[in-house]
User: What shape does this take?
Amino acid sequence: MMKRRFGAAIGMGFMLALGAATTSAQDRHAAANKPTGIDASRSTFHIVATDRGFEAPASIPAGLRHIVFENHGKEIHEGMLVKLPDGMRARDYVAAVKAGSLFPEGALDYSGAGLTSPGESAELWTRMDPGQYVVICWNADHARTRRVHAFTVTAAGAHDDPLPAVDVVLKLVDFRFELSAPLRKGTQVIRVDTTGPSMHEADFYRLLDGKTLADLVAWRKHDGAGAAPVIALGGILDSHDLARQVWLRKNFTPGRYVLGCEMPLSADAKSGTGYATHTDAGMVLAFEIAE
Assistant: This one.
């Protein structure tokens, strides 16, 4: 299975831990200036996924960036942001991936938009440091067969985009999801904190009518072949820096949802080997959004 996250069998632990939300100084500042809708400001990093690769700017300024990810293809895509080490070029990173590496040496994951169905979009905020990067999709065999997009984060013009006020805090813990409050109908801003100690991600899925978690598991086990039993809503991907916070704005409609973490349990896992993931350890959460 090329997608470096979902494993062959999932522990079906449905858990909802309601913890006390912590409010950062950035969150308190944002609360007084809560925007509505997608704020496509001049510094928004707009990434369009197609079935051939990505369309995105060649450079963006460093700082806290507002990112809008749109899937214009016919397949499910994601947009992992990866900072390359000095001396590594985009083609070097791709060559390492094609050789089986899930984490090419020296490259650092900087989060990004999770699995997103055709016609769907994801909106998030994360901090970008100066350097050379690629955007890559790890769904199915896309990391080996689709173009990555190389881009530069420049120190010139560095600034922070304004943050929206936070409604819910989602903590990613070994091996569970902890929500500070239940998610509800409507638009909410979720601040995602990785408590760890492992790297984690949070993919949001909305189950289609008549479909179950078991259908989702079977579909992912076969690399997403065939009709999808879910709509993939674009969550957030992992970061090597566990202190990195990511903010996600989603509009939830009534229905049944699943949160999953598809990170490999072993850092030595190789693509295409059916390795175990965090969902095998029970890191999955089913929840419902009521009318």
